[in-house]
Amino acid sequence: MDRNLPSGRTHLRLDRRLSAFGTACSSGPRNPLPLAAPIFVNGTLWGFIGFDDCLSPRHWNAAKIDALKTAAHLVGAMLQKKRSEDLLDQATRNLEKEVAEKTAELREANARLHEELRRRQEAQARLSESERRYRELYEGRQRLRPAHGLFHRQET
């Protein structure tokens, strides 16, 4: 068989050296011209599909040749579609896993930020309370003025 088939082209391979496509022909007469067409998947030779007549030699007419070409093309397209779907499914699973991991990381980061924000708000509240007390003490002291060495309250 010719292993150097150009990719992307549908070739018929009529070859007297081809073996039977199944075991059914092993006991019957061999067709001198079995018919085969290559199956390409993504431009790469994947295999062959063919016809053989195990009962008598046959000359393949144009309709049967076209049918085989079409079948080979359809099988190749189906295999290519299946491979594409498998790749898409795998990419989807990988993406979903990555999204789940990133979501978990973001949740953890968000929880840490919320905790940090809570601590800062508590510190701000303590600082505000401390500032309020200091102001009360400072303002209370300002109302007291020394008079001849004694403190007395200033009337307002």
Assembly level? single chain
| Count of DSSP strands | 5
Mean pLDDT: 80
Structural class: alpha+beta
Q: Helicity level, as a percent range?
A: 40-55%
Q: Outline the low-pLDDT stretches.
A: 13-24
- The arrangement of helices and strands along the chain is EEEHEE
User: Hey, roughly how much beta strand do the residues contain?
Assistant: 15-25%
Distance between the termini: 116 Å
Note the overall shape.
Answer: rod-shaped
Q: How much is the radius of gyration in Å?
A: 44 Å
For the sheet with most strands, the description reads: 3 strands, antiparallel
Give the neighbour order of strands across the main sheet. Answer: 1-2-3
Number of helices: 1
Folded structure, characterized:
The strands form 2 sheets. The protein has a 3-stranded antiparallel beta sheet, covered by helices on one side. Strands 4-5 form a two-stranded antiparallel sheet. By secondary structure, the protein is α+β, with helices and mostly antiparallel strands. Strand 4 and strand 5 form a beta hairpin. The chain has 1 helix and 5 strands; from the N terminus they run βββαββ. The longest helix has 82 residues. 53% of the residues lie in helices and 16% in strands.
